[in-house]
């Protein structure tokens, strides 16, 4: 671990530049994606990637150069390209960063269980194969896949102010999906996939419940095939954690990103219905809503000690009792806006520059068990497992769809319904939060697929949430 | 190309008689400049190159992606380590029943070495042209290379220089118009003209917003808006595996249970496109007619699907999605669009589409950038952001009235991981009824 550190440190000390500040961020990533589809092992996809980004600040103007050549000559050449870029853009630069503080921290961060060996490739295939074989024989089950992705990332950040930040992380992404088809309609049920990932080792797979999951997932796909469409009309909506994470992500996370509020993302990811003047004043949700940026849950996907600009990460309330307090803005956005923020300046890899990203964005648990949540609903619907998401560029008008729906009448769960969708407006929706599940309903989840930025970056984000109830939401089904 | 060739030659002598390989190559040297408020927000350069090595032995195979360092010795060492890693991996795997190798020694080369724009000139042109404007966007430029070689002697090389300036102009009221200027030769006058056109559109956006209630409206979808719908269909729509495993949004079209308008014809037109004419699994890519007269025709088949479903491969990519999709033009003249629309919506762009009901090809999404209310053939006012929810079998089927005679070449501005080379050539579409829901 960190075997490149001595060499990089030596190279960094030998770099020559006229910049008033410069930094090096080295990233090495190895990945393995295994899957078994319909009892046939797909060939493994393995990867090894490494490179470095050099960033300079020259007369207050920052520019970067990313290189796959991490020799001293390669790093020096990249540094010079970054300097040249800073000179060229100076007459056109938006920002003068001469007075922006920089980090001088020294720290390490490791994923939990990083020292524990992970099962061998053969053992992984055996596990996936056994789960695939457990899917019952039914001619309506036309496709299924059991998968396991693992990624190891080592990052070393050095800067001219003396910072030395090292982090080593292992991410685990198990998944199961089964598709059932009746000659006209098809329904897919999944576990994990884009809705789950954690830091750690084999214990992640155990926590996820991969072993023994496939028959249940297959049965649920068949149930959906036989189920009626979700009825249209207003209902109380009970969202389970594997849909809550999408709801948090799209209609709290993205609108609170400070670079969006500052306009950087208007050409691509979009803007925000939240204004800079709303912090400290806007009642974002009901007083049951408590949202935190929490980098301290060890297994969560975006737990870390420092962000990619070297800012130390601590748990912060962004929304407390429904009141909007802080944006998701890293040191640069805080400097630009004069607002507070968090340590969320993150890059997808060595070849992309850090920008404001979600990291771990969570809803704090409330005080009701799942039975109490259901028992409190007279005319409602439970929805679980996101499958469709669409929201406007200001992150306000949304429509989301789930795989699994179950009607709730007079405080009791009733029949399964398919194609459950709902639509609402973010600025109003969170004020309809009427009940929050307790710790027994709280799940630590996340996704590897959050896209944003120009050039584009896809990054891992963590979301943890209890089950939550929203009153009087417009729900509807599909065409089939 | 020489660095790649040297690695291929090294690999040929390094493998044993029982082993075979596919070696893919991708590299780019890119300049990225982000703009906000018509100033440079962030700028940098990225140099990257990578290999994708597939090692095959006795029916077993595995893939390894390797980032190169740009130094012949280090790169050879990384390739050697990768080869060793795959040699240790293959005995752990079962034989793959869907492995289908191409043993032909095909050759394909395409090189375009047009001089890249001078960044100082580009910055000066943008700065001058954007005076008084709130411009936001990204300029990306540089060479992109793709290569492929196999132990059977196949060799492909595709290299092109290009730039893409993808930008928006914002009105003080928050409304915006989107535009792009892309190609291989920067022409200051052509760029100024493009910017001026966007500036003129921006003036319309200053008018008071026209509030629309949910309901059904006549609508014109400009090529950029239609691209969003077509992009959704390319997510498994034409994939042989997705169609067979009932994950395709066009499964009812391919089953013959649904049809689109007879006006609709689509094809994957690799020939003369910006995409490499070979796939990562070693097959030359063919042009494929996907939809004709509104009915399903061919599908995109990679070698794995060919083996699994007994089809012939047409060199499709791993995910069997098109990268050079063309839609046939119609006969609606550009000058007649507003007149023929009469009263309804002129939609320049759509945004963030997803499925409400995938097997029914029912989509939802938002209007974004320059959507106008038109009355009696005249633009009256911009329209606030609205959500639609409608089926492709309506929009490009029963409710499709006309397609434009002129088509627009849409070059991808996507830069996830690397700059994308895909493109599409699309007309605009006039639809009799678009359902708005929120």
UniProtKB/TrEMBL annotation, chain A:
Keywords: Hydrolase, Metalloprotease, Protease. The keyword Hydrolase applies. Residues 24-86 form the Metalloprotease TldD/E N-terminal domain. GO terms for cellular component: cytosol. Residues 245-475 form the Metalloprotease TldD/E C-terminal domain. One of its GO terms (molecular function) is metallopeptidase activity. The keyword Hydrolase applies. Pfam families: PmbA_TldD_1st, PmbA_TldD_2nd, PmbA_TldD_3rd. Residues 128-225 form the Metalloprotease TldD/E central domain. GO terms for biological process: proteolysis. Belongs to the peptidase U62 family. PANTHER family: CONSERVED PROTEIN, UNCHARACTERIZED PROTEIN TLDD AND PMBA. This is TldD/PmbA family protein. It comes from Pseudomonas proteolytica.
From TrEMBL, chain B:
GO terms for molecular function: metallopeptidase activity. It holds the Pfam family PmbA_TldD_3rd. InterPro entries: Metalloprtase-TldD/E_C, TldD/PmbA_sf. Residues 214-436 form the Metalloprotease TldD/E C-terminal domain. One of its GO terms (biological process) is proteolysis. It comes from the Bacteria. This is TldD/PmbA family protein. It comes from Pseudomonas proteolytica.
